[in-house]
């Protein structure tokens, strides 16, 4: 099982850059980049809430469950 992070897709749909989103959300570019590239092991609900607020989306638009084959 794997959790797929679609943050880059949502950022592209909303035409928001990594730098812009990180400043709006209040986390570093490096930490946001780790999340965006699916290398993060965890995410705080407060961070997820802030990202969803800034991108006007739902958590399910960013996180997706995919079964391994």
UniProtKB/TrEMBL annotation:
Start and end residues of each HTH cro/C1-type domain: 7-62
Gene3D superfamilies: lambda repressor-like DNA-binding domains
A GO MF label: DNA binding
Lineage of the species this protein comes from: Bacteria, Bacillati, Bacillota, Clostridia, Eubacteriales
Pfam families: HTH_26
Listed name of the protein: Transcriptional regulator
């Amino acid at each position: 099982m794997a959790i797929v992070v679609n943050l880059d897709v949502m950022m592209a749909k909303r035409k928001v850059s990594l730098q812009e989103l990180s400043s709006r959300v209040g986390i570093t570019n490096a930490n946001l980049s780790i999340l965006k590239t699916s290398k993060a092991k965890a995410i705080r609900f407060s961070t997820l809430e802030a990202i969803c607020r800034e991108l006007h989306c739902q958590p399910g638009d960013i996180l997706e469950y995919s079964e391994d084959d």
